[in-house]
């Protein structure tokens, strides 16, 4: 059901309230509030998304960001399934997340997301997580590419997507367009093997799973009693079911640099810089 609330004057922007049922059997709905090109979705933090301190994990925060982005993209007719029909798909190239305060179990929060101007090959999207009193809890910027499913190569962002960028709105986090360094692979250790639960709609490892691995397999001597407050991650290569995943890390001043490799050839699949407090 969609309700359009419009004004006869040009001073008040159009607001839409979009209610979508998750399925015919499950009548629970979420509400998407739309003002101009800002999209806000309310969520409640679930018990299985928090750590032992009853605070949201970094990966659950990223999942909320991407869920809101997916709803928004579907509304604009260019989500992943809609791109698949054109022989294309989305791939995440980079994401930079800063957590100012982790929401608590069962806390009600709002996720606001908006597209920002890209550069031809990359489409930028920004995010804010806010408490119900308007306090910013976390923020992020992501860089996406459109991939041709046949050639497996990036293509220029379609014009109908590029024109959705909000050139007059600043980034939630300023994007870093430089490549991140990788850690030497000869220090890597085997941490897991990819299974069906790790895969996304492209049949590749879900991008948030990389964040899970990077935050979950560091030694206690580095992170005991600390939380990851900031992470910038760059995705380098796909990973599929059956791949063996290796992790290598180095501590540099107040940051930890990590790289994930796959299989015996130790091909780098993702690299990151993170800060812990």
Automatic annotation (TrEMBL):
Pfam families: Acyl-ACP_TE (PF01643), Acyl-ACP_TE_C (PF20791). Keywords: Fatty acid biosynthesis, Fatty acid metabolism, Hydrolase, Lipid biosynthesis, Lipid metabolism, Transit peptide. SUPFAM superfamilies: Thioesterase/thiol ester dehydrase-isomerase. Residues 37-162 form the Acyl-ACP thioesterase N-terminal hotdog domain. GO terms for molecular function: acyl carrier activity; fatty acyl-[ACP] hydrolase activity. InterPro entries: Acyl-ACP_TE_C, Acyl-ACP_thioesterase_NHD, FATA/B, HotDog_dom_sf. Residues 188-260 form the Acyl-ACP thioesterase-like C-terminal domain. Belongs to the acyl-ACP thioesterase family. This is Acyl-[acyl-carrier-protein] thioesterase. The lineage of its organism: Bacteria, Pseudomonadati, Balneolota, Balneolia, Balneolales.
């Amino acid at each position: 059901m969609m309700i359009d609330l419009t004004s006869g004057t040009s001073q008040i922007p159009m607001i839409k309230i979009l209610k979508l049922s998750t399925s015919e059997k499950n009548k629970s709905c979420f509400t998407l509030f739309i003002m101009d090109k800002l999209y806000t979705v309310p969520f409640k933090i679930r018990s299985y998304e928090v750590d032992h301190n009853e605070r949201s994990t970094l990966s659950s925060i990223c999942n909320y960001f991407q869920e809101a982005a997916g709803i928004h993209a579907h509304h604009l007719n260019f989500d992943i399934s809609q791109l698949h029909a054109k022989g294309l798909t989305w791939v995440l190239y980079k994401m930079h997340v800063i957590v100012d305060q982790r929401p608590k179990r069962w806390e009600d929060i709002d996720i606001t997301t908006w597209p920002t101007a890209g550069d031809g090959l990359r489409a930028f999207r920004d995010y804010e997580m806010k408490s119900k009193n308007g306090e910013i809890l976390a923020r992020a910027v992501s860089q996406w590419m459109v991939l041709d499913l046949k050639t497996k190569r990036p293509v220029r962002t379609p014009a109908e997507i590029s024109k959705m960028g909000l050139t007059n709105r600043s980034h939630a986090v300023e994007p870093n367009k430089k490549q991140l360094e990788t850690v030497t692979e000869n220090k890597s250790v085997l941490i897991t093997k990819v299974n069906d639960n790790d895969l996304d709609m492209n049949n590749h490892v879900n991008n948030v799973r990389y964040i899970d691995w990077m935050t979950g397999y560091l030694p206690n001597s580095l992170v005991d009693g600390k939380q990851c407050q900031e992470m910038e991650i760059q995705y380098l290569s796909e990973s599929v079911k059956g791949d063996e995943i290796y992790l290598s890390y180095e501590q540099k001043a107040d940051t930890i640099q990590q790289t994930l490799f796959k299989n015996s050839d130790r091909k780098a699949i993702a690299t990151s810089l993170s800060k812990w407090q």
